[in-house]
Amino acid sequence: MARSLSLPCRVAIDRLQVVADRFAWLLREEPLPPRPLVLMAAGLVAGALVVRWLPVPGASPALPCWFVGLAAVAGWRWATGRGWPRLAATALVAAAVATGAAWSAAQFDWFSRGDLAWQLADSPRPVAIRGRVIASPRLLTSPAETTGRAAAIGSASEFLLAVTAIRDHDEWRPATGRAAVIVRGDPVRLDAGSDVRIFGRGLRPAIPLNPGEPDRAAQARGDRCLSVVRVAGWEGVGVLARPGPWSPTAFIERLSVAGGATLAAGIAPARVPLAQALLLGGRGAMSRDLADDFVATGTVHVLSISGLHLGLLAAGLFVVLRSALVPRAWSLAVVAVLTGLYAVLVGAETPVVRALLMVWVACLAGAASRRGSTINALAVAAIAIVAWRPAEAASTGAQLSFLSTAVLVAAATLLARPPETDPIAVLVERSRSRWEKAVRGGLRAATVAFLTGLAVSLATAPLVAARFHMVSPVGLVANVLIAPVVPVAMACGLLCLLAGAVSQPMAAVFATGCDAALAVIEGIVAVAADLPAGHAWVAGPAWWWVCGWYAVLLAAAVWGRRELIRRPATWGSLAAGWCGVGLLVAAVGAAAAPPPGGLRVVMTAVGHGCGILVRAPTGRSLLYDAGRLGAPSAACRSLSAVLWSERVTRIDTLVVSHADADHFNAVPDLLERFSCGELLVPGALLANESPAVAELLAAAAARGVPVRTARSGDAFAIDPLCRVRVLHPTMADGRDGGDDNATSLVLSVESAGRRLLLTGDLDGAALESFIATTPGACDVLLAPHHGEATSLPADIAHATAPSIVLVSGRGGRAWPVVRDAYAAASGADAAAVLKTGGEGAVAVTLTAGAVTAERFAAGRWRAIEPPGHQAAVTPGRVRNQPPTISANWLVTYAAKSSRTPLVKP
Questions:
Q1: What is the per-residue pLDDT across 101-117, written as a single tens digit (0 to 9) for each?
Q2: Is the model more confident about 373 or about 620?
Q3: In this predicted structure, what is the pLDDT of residue 127?
Q4: What is the tally of structural domains in the chain?
């Protein structure tokens, strides 16, 4: 019996060995030497990614993955004992994949029962908690975000807290977990390690409410920080105990504060924030315009303490110590200790930890008198970071950090000049003058720097474009120009920090040099940011194409012949070929796509504000309002994500309904990201003297966007199949310069017999007057004034009888009453009343045959079943039209304004 069982097992094992031998090229030595650590790191990272991107329904997959990993380790041990190295290597890589998946799933899914997050919900609720400060407060909202466009929300600060207790009525009971505490106001002195008591409103991190937005909730789970506590002011934060004099965290905080004061004393005030970002990692105080310039020019890595900074520090320290005749071993030890202290001082972010581990590996190799392998050091850093924070495997910042380093290493290897062996060439080189050698060496160094930067930019461009929607060709030149200046600024700045503890006059000398270098960097970045076509905002490629891009590059690096991968033409051909594949797939997809299905309306979830995209049947677009109460950049991010997800790159008509900042404060930022055909505003807006309106008009003028006014009676066409009529205001509305809401542009968008009514913030007496004009029935109504009780819900619903009512925001305190009023007053069938606040973006498609609605939830669009009428085909609200849209159909109403003629088909 045993023999009959052993024979099939032996056959199966032999077949596995054959399979392993067939995949032996994974470990072959040419063109790359065997790298066991690289394979282990790749396995761990792959497992951490797979378990996040391919979630298993039901319970956490952590335990099954652990069992698979243990089985793979047992298989490795058994295959090693049998003398089957290929099978053993395959089993070891499988164990690494399973281990990475198990550890990532455990960190993502398993939390303590006492975690504060279990007591919270998606909406804020009052909480009283105690805890210990992990990181001191930092400025969360920059000063530029607190101007008129931001609707006077003021500044805000944030710090991280380790929760220890939560109050339950009159008793405190133990609690665990970490919380991000956001306090309204500028940061105050609060040392890490302090015990505090906080009264605020707690909630869980928000899930993405719009397509294309990053998943902050998933990021928070990966960081194991599931709670957010908002505090109205610093009076809600009470300090129970401060850290002792020997507390390491307090010591680091004091060093950071002292360093900032030293820099502020010797550097021009305008450049102090840049110096702090470059040397201490603090970017909160930087002006928004300067930060945007660094982003636009592709030089933002200078502002993040990363491998560049730590590498320069390590190299400089080693040179100084060796010049001072310090023994090599002691020099390496001092470099390792000081770089570690600096990493702790600036905050142990992933790029810093990666660079620190690589420096330590290099120091260890140097102490052992062995030549270190940069690729192996990079693999060690990847293994350590996945073990420390497995969520970093899916972090774009960590991916860019490791990818850039790998490309730098590869480019340096390929561009390295082999030693000259031709005697004649050696004699010619020796005969050159010192100046000629210096010039030729400088030109070669500049060429190598440019080609290396080009390689890094091309390798990272797809990921940057897909994740950040930015392409910066000017970065190729800007990075080369600032490359020699950054080390000077860092060296002078670090010497200034060190000298500040000994002699202030000496620190001032170094501060002068740092200030001059920073001025050069700032000037280069400012000029590069203003260059035409220097950068562009893009929708970004599809993720399948991005993954394929890196798969092609990896396959070429691993399996290509050495003489081929050394040629730039090889990489250029691969890049051109894969770009051609992407263009071909896009062309085939466009040709096979069905004809336009009707009018598509997407109401973006921007909080208390408004942003509605209207896409006509032929693809042309109208954006009705773009703003929110609060930071304009948040509204811009949400609206940009929706526009890019709908593949909109140009806004043909951008409508600002009235002069309230929460309806237009994102427009200046949007005009930087998208081209715009025209800006349509009510006449009363041009007479408004607020700074926010002045900035809006200045932004339109700077971008060459024509501004047109509209009033009741005007009409224009978005495309031959869709037209817009202006129903309000009349010439008499808003003459006294009073309420801006009374001058809101009310638009009737009509296509295929369907009608969408956009009402802005119309309310009160102005809304009563509008209703008295009998606006007529519509299919979809935007509830006036965000669904507030002052918007006369019953009256407007009776006058328009909509099938669907859209509410941009949470609906106000009287939301249940308003919702019921809309639902009950909209005709025979109850209307579907849909709001974005806390629930997600809403999309409505209007065709001649039906009106359908969707909501963005759990990462995708999901159909909504409006009550009563969804299954039936309702007639059009404008007039009876053909059941399908054709290119020859056009609404036959004549335009009433020669300034906005209808577009003819």
A1: 999 988 888 888 889 99
A2: 620
A3: 92
A4: 4
- In this structure, the answer to whether residues 639 and 716 fall within a common structural domain is yes
Question: Does the pLDDT value for residue 810 go beyond 50?
Answer: yes
Residues 574 and 622 in one domain: no
Q: Is residue 214 situated within a structural domain?
A: yes
**Residues facing residue 854 across a β-bridge:** 843, 863
Asked if 376 and 403 touch (Cβ cutoff 8 Å), the reply is no
- Tell me the whole-structure pTM to 2 decimals: 0.82
- What would the 3-class secondary structure string for 257-310 be? HHHHHHHHHHCCHHHHHHHHHHHHCCCCCCCHHHHHHHHHCCCHHHHCCCHHHH
Q: Compute the average pLDDT of residues 241-268.
A: 78
Query: 774 and 837, same structural domain?
Result: yes
**Residue 412 included in any domain:** no
Using N-to-C axis directions, what is the helix angle for 85-109 and 62-82, rounded to 10°? 160
The answer to whether residues 24 and 133 belong to one domain is no
In the predicted model, what is the mean pLDDT of the chain?
81
Omega cis (within 30) before 729: yes
Mapping DSSP to helix (H, G, I), strand (E, B) and coil, where does residue 571 land? helix
Residue ending a domain, choose from 212, 243, 274: 243
In-domain check, residue 395: no
Percentages of the chain per state (helix, strand, coil), in multiples of 5: 50, 15, 30
Bridge partners of 650, per DSSP, are: 675
C-alpha angle 748-752-754 in degrees, rounded to nearest 5: 45
Spacing of C-alpha 284 from chain mean position: 17
pLDDT one-digit tens code per residue, 546-597: 989 988 888 887 777 777 777 778 888 888 899 899 889 888 877 776 666 6
- Report CA torsion sign: 305, 308, 312, 314: positive
Domain boundary (210, 243, 276) is at 243
In a domain, 294, yes or no: no
CATH number at residue 142: 2.40.50.140
Domain co-membership, 33 together with 145: no
Report the distance separating Cα 500 and Cα 507, nearest Å: 5
From the list 130, 121, 125, the residue with the least C-alpha distance to 162 is: 130
Examine the domain organization and report whether 645 and 782 are in the same domain: yes
**For residue 299, what are its two tokens?**
């030089």
What residue numbers bound the domain in which 724 lies?
599-864
On whether both 581 and 666 belong to a single domain, the answer is: no
Residue 878 has pLDDT above 50, yes or no: no
Dist CA 269 CA 515 (whole Å): 10
83-95: burial string, b at 16+ Cβ within 10 Å, e else:
ebebbbbbbbbbb
Provide the token pair at 444: 């070669």
Range 597-604 average pLDDT: 90
- DSSP for residue 710: E
SS3 of residue 852 by DSSP: strand
Q: What is the largest CA-CA distance in the chain?
A: 102
